[in-house]
């Protein structure tokens, strides 16, 4: 068994790292709101529990070459830079899904680092090591903090890769200010090519209530990952701790309409999971192909929403092919 196969096999067991969809529904955000204007931890013990789980999950990643805390108008954004095998190539910047943070990319970093340097970001206003300091009141604010983050990097542009709600975050930035975006790769994005299914919203509601047992959150996380078990996995433990102890204070993301998608300037690669529960896959594919006539659409028929952990090598190969002609 090759090293690549070993990595793939190991990370299939942790594909729940993409259960980032756990709180993507707009209704969930409304249900768990508290009077505080910014995202915050329920108490110091909860934050400590999350940080311990974060550190444990982070240990599976390569050592970052640099750790940056970038000041933006809405808070301090934690960014890591990982040194790749082609430092002269244009770097990648990875945006995780909801409640997952940088360790969600553990399965993907080895393949992407073969292509160049990689930045990862802990989304502002989410569980992670970024620190929200001012309210994020809408799509423009989401775009503003991310634009300021990219502007602070030494490169003029990056290949932007977004997973789940990170895919929406990437598209939202491209619609507001694409200046620092060379290409867009969207990995089973939510609120972009279709609405969140009602059944998923209903199943997610118990997971959004922090006082309910851990098993309820684990159950929903397993559902988004195609039924994979989530117990005793470091990244899944980190995600559950974030769901349990962090209070999101973010507005519901605006569904991206087809006419706005058609106006995207950067080239787009859309990767859709055929068994995703975060949209209707057939509808998402049809929308992407219709709204992005110059884009590239890939469908992984057997993948769940946790496809970044299920198919890391295939994703790296598709990204290599897509970005290789656009460097």
Structural description of this entry:
- It contains 13 helices and eleven strands.
- It is an alpha/beta fold.
- The chain has one domain (3-324): Rossmann fold, CATH 3.40.50.
- The strands form two sheets. Strands 2, 3, 4, 5, 6, 7, 8, 10 and 11 form a nine-stranded mixed beta sheet that branches. A two-stranded antiparallel sheet has the order 1-9.
- Strand 2 and strand 3 (75-82) form a beta hairpin.
- The longest helix is centred in the first third of the chain and has 15 residues, at 44-58.
- It starts with a helix and ends with a helix.
- This is Alpha/beta fold hydrolase.
- Residues 93-317 form the AB hydrolase-1 domain.
- InterPro entries: AB_hydrolase_1 (IPR000073), AB_hydrolase_fold (IPR029058), AB_hydrolase_sf (IPR050266).
What is Rg?
18 Å
Class by SSE composition: alpha/beta
Instruction: Please count the beta strands (DSSP E, at least 2 residues each).
Output: 11
The CA-CA distance between the termini, in Å, is 33 Å
- Average pLDDT value? 85
| Tally of contiguous helical segments | 13
From the spread of the alpha carbons, the general shape counts as: globular
CATH topological fold name: Rossmann fold
Number of domains: 1
GO molecular function: hydrolase activity
Pfam families: Abhydrolase_6
Protein name: Alpha/beta fold hydrolase
Organism: Nocardia jiangsuensis
């Amino acid at each position: 068994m090759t090293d690549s196969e070993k990595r793939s096999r190991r990370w299939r067991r942790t594909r729940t790292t993409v259960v980032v969809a756990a709180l993507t529904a707009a209704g969930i955000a409304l249900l768990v709101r508290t009077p505080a204007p910014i995202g915050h931890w329920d108490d110091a013990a909860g934050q400590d529990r999350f940080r311990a789980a974060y550190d444990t999950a982070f240990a599976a990643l390569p050592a970052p070459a640099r750790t940056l805390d970038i000041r933006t108008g809405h808070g301090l954004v934690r960014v890591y830079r990982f040194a790749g095998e082609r430092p002269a190539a244009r770097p990648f910047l990875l945006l995780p899904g909801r409640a997952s943070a940088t360790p969600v990319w553990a399965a993907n970093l080895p393949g992407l680092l073969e292509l160049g340097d990689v930045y990862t970001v802990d989304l502002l206003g989410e569980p992670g090591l970024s620190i929200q300091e001012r309210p994020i009141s809408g799509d423009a604010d989401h775009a503003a903090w991310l634009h300021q983050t990219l502007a602070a990097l030494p490169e003029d542009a990056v290949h932007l890769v977004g997973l789940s709600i990170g895919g929406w975050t990437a598209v939202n930035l491209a619609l507001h200010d694409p200046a620092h975006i060379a290409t867009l790769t969207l990995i089973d994005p939510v609120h972009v090519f279709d609405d969140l299914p009602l059944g998923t919203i209903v199943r997610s509601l118990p997971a959004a209530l922090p006082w309910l047992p851990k098993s309820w959150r684990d159950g929903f996380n397993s559902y988004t990952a195609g039924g994979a078990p989530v117990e005793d996995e470091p990244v899944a433990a980190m995600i559950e701790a974030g769901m349990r102890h962090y209070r999101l204070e973010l507005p519901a993301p605006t569904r991206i309409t087809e006419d706005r998608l058609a106006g995207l300037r950067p080239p787009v690669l859309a990767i859709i999971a055929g068994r995703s529960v975060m949209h209707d896959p057939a509808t998402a594919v049809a929308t992407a192909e219709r709204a992005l006539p110059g884009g590239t659409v890939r469908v992984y028929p057997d993948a769940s929403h946790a496809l970044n952990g299920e198919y890391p090598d295939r994703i790296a190969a598709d990204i290599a092919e897509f970005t290789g002609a656009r460097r």
